[in-house]
Design a protein that fits this description.
- There is one protein chain.
- The chain has two helices and eight strands, in the order βαββββαβββ.
- With 117 residues, it is of the alpha/beta class.
- The chain has two domains: 6-56, 2,3-Dihydroxybiphenyl 1,2-Dioxygenase, domain 1 (Roll); 66-117, 2,3-Dihydroxybiphenyl 1,2-Dioxygenase, domain 1 (Roll), CATH 3.10.180.
- The strands form two sheets. It has a four-stranded mixed β-sheet, covered by helices on one side. Strands 5-8-7-6 form a four-stranded mixed β-sheet, with helices on one face.
- The longest helix has 12 residues, at 15-26.
């Protein structure tokens, strides 16, 4: 038996707006959209992707799942994402080598530092 990872579901108040924000942030393509769903992938036939699905309920607590990204240049990527609409957030991480950001709907994600050689 084999399992293939297809996508991560992200509940969103506005799937199209949040999905488009992430598509632009990641440089990914839109593979499906309707009023309640907006799916993006690295390329049309490449998985896993992110599927933003409408949930008409406000978030009540810290996200239980978040994405980590490791860029070539952490500072430049943090600056780029903040200019794109992300914001820095404090989730109790203290002084760390990663930076915690949130997307426009408040979903946290981390921009990691360089991997130890």
């Amino acid at each position: 038996m084999t399992l293939n990872w297809e996508q991560v579901i992200v509940h969103a108040e506005d799937p199209a707006a949040l999905g488009q924000w992430w598509a632009e942030a990641l440089g990914w393509v839109v593979v499906y959209s309707d009023d309640d769903e907006y799916e993006i992938r690295p390329a049309e036939d490449v998985t896993p992707g992110l599927d933003f699905v409408r949930l008409n309920e406000a978030r009540k607590a810290k996200s239980r799942l978040h994405l980590d990204f490791r860029p070539d240049n952490q500072a430049a990527e943090v600056d780029r994402l903040i200019a794109h609409g992300a914001r820095r957030v404090d989730i109790g991480q203290g002084e760390q080598s990663w930076v915690v950001l949130a997307d426009p709907e408040g979903n946290e994600f981390c921009i990691l530092g360089q991997r130890a050689q």
